[in-house]
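Lab channel / #folding
Pinned by the channel admin:
"Please post every new chain as: sequence first, then the structure tokens as a reply. Keep commentary short and put observations after the output so the thread stays searchable."

First post following the new format, from NK:
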Amino acid sequence: MKRFLIYLCLGLVPALSSAQNVIVKAELDSMMMWVGQQTGIHVEVACDAGKTVAFPAYRDTIVKGLEIIPPVTTDTQFVNGGQRMVLTRNYTVTCFDSALIYIPYIPVTVDGEEYQSNRLALAFMSYDIPEENAKEIFGPKENMKTPVKFYEVKGLALYWILAALAIVAAIYLLLRYRDDKPIIRRIKIEPKVPAHVRAINGIEELRQAGGPHSEDAKGYYTQLTDILREYINDRFGFNATEMTSYEIMERLEESRDKESLSELRDLLSTADMVKFAKFKPMLNENDQNLINALEFVNDTKIEVSEEELQPKVEETVIEEKRSKGGRIALLTAGIVIAVAGTAFFVLAVLKIYYLFF
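Reply from TO:
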């Protein structure tokens, strides 16, 4: 204790270096501590602004037994209107053994010239534990294992699912690329319904919909003549859908006599007057024109067998070789998905590591 008091007194009398207006002093936050506690040492240098100041480059200790705890910081202040500056180097120190530590001085270099701070002294004291209580002191306990919560593993489960799906998809695409199997397409071929069957069905649907008795005479005659034009187009082989009524009759008269076409001529004439002259025919006239259209189809139809009237749907299989671009697309997609699956797998492994280790 005598030595400690001597060192303490020396520390309280600052050895201030003032040559050339340079002042260096050192201060302690606390001079007496328990073992393992920390205190601060502050080395303050006051000099003219613009000078180069270098503090000692301590590594782990200032003196033997006095360990430095990083970080080491430096504060700078300017005073007297910026003509003077004050630099403070801050050290945090500790000691892990009971000891009386004496710091003779701390050297500081200003513009290449060394200056010394005042001396310091500090003491670290150990705990005095009675023998009867020594057995009650225990070491550190092990970490407690807490149950894993769902929110902690839901991200992990998602990564595993995405990784598994990506890997399976990549394997499938790469196998398809390696096998180079042709593309198989199944096409259903439905036989064409005979022209007169389509026309008769269309006329019957128009009748059931009440077309002849509809107030919209223009709409009725438009539908009726469209059915006939499509039938004539398929049956006689000329584009009746794009021809006028007069042109249709001229073409039909080349293969049939005029008397057999008189009813069709009257029907087309009435339809033109309704559509272009706003003519309003009688209801019985509408019914008669529907019957005339049906009779024209029946008179001019080409007879077909019962088998042709009940066509069967046929299925054709077409095999096509994969194009070069398609194979490249398969390979690229497989590689990209494989990389993504690997990334998800790595993320899942890292999450397991951070969660349980």
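NK: The mean pLDDT is 81.
TO: also worth noting, Residues 150-188+321-356 form one domain.
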